[in-house]
Design goal:
alpha/beta; Rossmann fold; seven-stranded parallel β-sheet; binds nicotinamide-adenine-dinucleotide
């Protein structure tokens, strides 16, 4: 897909789906703004993508820090002129605890990163996108936000909120050339595996396997492309035909 002249801001870009999105957008010639908390892994993604596309900026930045996010958006806009694509991918999801076990601190951390992180990054770019008459926002949600996962109430609730935010915001900006969509992965290969085509058997989907980072990135890149201008306010599940919830 062609992304020359477009600038993409990707959160949680160091590993997993975020890294795969960065690699795929780089192949399309996009300018990249990559942010993550994990400096070491982020540097690796920066180096990988710099081998593919010309313009890459990488920042160690916490999505829960609105001032820091705004500074990055300011610097990137100065450098590239605009941010055309926002992929809100950074999130916490690995903690498993029943509702009784999950303490208030855990809940607050999940709400902060998964919901407020998405809100802050979106707030930092949205007015410029509507002023420019162009924007693509893709929020990475989860099937947990649709069905609810036991022992992940703290996670499921945040992803449900991200899906609702997506649908509501899409309606506010549709007439200004900005699309807002969510993608909801099912089970994806472990993020510590650098092979973006890695998949393993899984009984959670009728396809009998986990999804790959590339498959998720391809969907996100399609929604980020000019071809997807008439798709907005959607939550698209990419879950291999989910079996169990
Ligand atoms: N992997 C799965 O099975 C799966 C399933 C459904 C949904 N998802 C969603 O896909 C997205 C990516 O998941 P993944 O498994 O590919 O990656 P991951 O969870 O392994 O990595 C996420 C990245 O986000 C970064 N991050 C976390 N908190 C941050 C913060 N406060 N500020 C900046 N960066 C931060 C981490 O450092 C990490 O590099 C997440 O939104 C996740 O909820 C994943």
């Amino acid at each position: 897909m062609e992304f020359k002249g477009k600038t993409a801001f990707i959160t949680g870009a160091a590993v997993g789906i975020g890294r795969a999105v960065a690699l795929q957008l780089a192949k399309g010639g996009a300018n990249l703004v990559l942010i993550d908390l994990n400096s070491e892994a982020l540097q690796k993604t920066e180096e990988e993508t710099k081998g593919i596309t010309e313009n890459v900026l990488a920042y160690t930045c916490d999505v829960t820090d609105y001032a820091a996010v705004s500074d990055v958006v300011e610097a990137a806009t100065k450098q590239f002129g605009s941010i055309d694509i926002l992929v809100n991918n950074a999130a916490l999801w690995r903690d498993r605890a029943s509702f009784s076990e999950a303490d208030v601190a855990l809940w607050k951390r999940y709400l902060d990163v998964n919901i407020m992180g998405t809100v802050y990054c979106t707030k930092a770019v949205i007015d410029r996108m509507t002023d420019n008459g162009y924007g693509r926002i893709i929020n990475v949600a989860s099937v947990a936000g649709v069905y609810g996962n036991a022992k992940m109430t703290h996670y499921s609730a945040t992803k449900g909120a991200v899906i609702a935010l997506t649908k509501a915001l899409a309606k506010e900006v549709a007439d200004k050339g900005v699309t807002v969509n969510a993608v909801s992965p099912g089970s994806v290969s472990p993020a510590d595996n650098p092979d973006i085509d890695f998949s393993k058997p899984s009984d959670l989907s009728f396809t009998g396997r986990t999804g790959t980072d590339r498959e998720n990135a391809d969907l996100i890149c399609f929604l980020a492309s000019d071809k997807a201008g008439y798709i907005s306010g959607q939550n698209i599940q990419i879950d291999g035909c989910r079996k169990k919830m």
